[in-house]
Design brief:
alpha+beta, 7-stranded antiparallel sheet, disordered N terminus, 388 residues, 28 strands, single chain
Length: 388
């Protein structure tokens, strides 16, 4: 403002001086008006826009790569719409170690009859695996979890309780033997082989070659069904801003997860490794390893525990779990901490979703996930504290 006032006075003085000149001078001279330049506040030079500062973890390491919808990790773009396989496997001590389970993206563990548990491994990238499993019989509740990934279900028979869900036209399954009742949908023994280094019934394995032969025989699609929302399962946190659980005031320390009360035979447990931020799985008091991958111990970025309503079906101890049409409690473990969650699955083909105590869907971190199904009424031990 002061600068403008000064310039105005200068202009006024010049006008008064010029008014005293003769008319010829007035006619021959042009009064030059001062140029008043506005003061413009300049912003600091922007070197990078928000888009330009995008974290490198949000950019594909190689051209053509895409995010794996099961783990959020980068995979070859050719796999974007490839359906996973879900493989049933026993957890008996004489069935261990499994083959190629370190390559699984999602691993489930759930009780079956007799107090033992079984696992179901879900693989997105499986076409180069020559020995998967071993493979054992199905239980119907595992099938519903396989369906929510739109996976091709691989098993070795099962009790008649699986008939209804297995024989649905939309259930693409491959089995190595007939199951309870007369149903033989998906029966194709050539997808499996018997290994000589294990004893029956723990020596049946699947191979990518055999599974592909069965897929061709049954004319199963190897790409997702049209109404399947690939990106609509887990809600992933970005790699640049992972979910540390630090924002939850009720988060608890979770360096040791002990499920021996819920899984009294396998005594499954997880130990958190501060260096790589992963939970390492143990069974029967020792590392759970992959016989096909240099005995690498199975490790997970995320662990979920789902407390689930169950019933005993018959005198043989076969179980039923209510895997959907319910909302129940659970816990989410990541980065050495845990929070209470609720989970729900609204229909056969819908995903299981996890919500924090504020009703917000939990953001899952990039990496492999372990899902442990625990009977309602059982408890787990976390860093010496009982949770149920």
């Amino acid at each position: 403002m002061k600068r403008v006032q000064v310039l105005f006075l200068v202009a006024l003085s010049s006008a008064l001086i010029l008014s005293g000149c003769n008319k010829e001078e007035e006619a021959s001279e042009t009064v030059v008006q001062p140029i008043v330049e506005p003061i413009v506040e300049t912003q600091p030079e922007e070197t990078e826009t928000e888009e330009e500062t995008e974290d490198e973890t949000d950019l594909p390491p190689e051209e053509g790569m895409v995010r794996n919808s099961l783990t959020n990790e980068w995979i070859d773009g050719d796999l974007e719409n490839a359906r996973p396989i879900a493989v049933m496997s026993p957890n008996d001590s004489n069935a261990l170690p499994h083959y190629n389970f370190s390559k699984a993206d999602i691993l489930y563990e759930c009780p079956v009859e007799g107090g033992i548990t079984r696992s179901m491994a879900v693989f997105k990238d499986w076409e180069d695996l020559d020995r998967i499993g071993n493979v054992r019989s199905s239980r119907d509740y595992f099938v519903y979890w396989a369906l929510e990934w739109d996976s091709i279900y691989v098993h070795f028979g099962g009790p008649f309780y699986i008939n209804d869900i297995i024989e649905q036209e939309s259930t693409n399954n491959i089995t190595g033997c007939s199951y309870g009742g007369t149903g033989k949908v998906g029966l194709y023994e050539n997808a499996f082989y018997r290994a000589t280094d294990r004893s029956a019934p723990q020596n049946a394995y699947a191979s990518a070659e055999g599974i592909n032969e069965a897929i061709s025989k049954f004319d199963y699609s190897k790409t997702y069904r049209e109404d399947y929302y690939v990106a609509d399962h887990f809600k992933f946190a970005s790699e640049s801003e992972p979910n540390t659980l630090d924002s939850y005031s009720d988060a608890v320390s979770a360096k040791e997860i002990d499920l021996k009360k819920a899984y009294p035979i396998t005594k499954t447990s997880f130990t958190y490794n501060e260096e790589d931020g992963l939970y390492y799985r143990s069974m029967y008091g020792k590392a759970d390893t992959d016989a096909a991958n240099n005995n690498q111990q199975l490790a997970f970025k995320n662990v979920f525990v789902q407390f689930t309503y169950h019933e005993v079906r018959d005198e043989h101890g076969y179980l039923a779990f209510q895997v959907h049409d319910t909302t129940r409690d659970g816990y989410y473990f990541t980065n050495g901490k845990a929070i209470h969650v609720t989970w729900e699955k609204t229909a056969d083909y819908e995903p299981t979703r996890y919500f924090d105590d504020n009703g917000n869907e939990v953001e899952v971190n990039t990496g492999k996930t372990m899902i442990c199904i625990v009977k309602d009424g059982d408890s787990i031990n976390v860093d010496g504290n009982t949770l149920n």
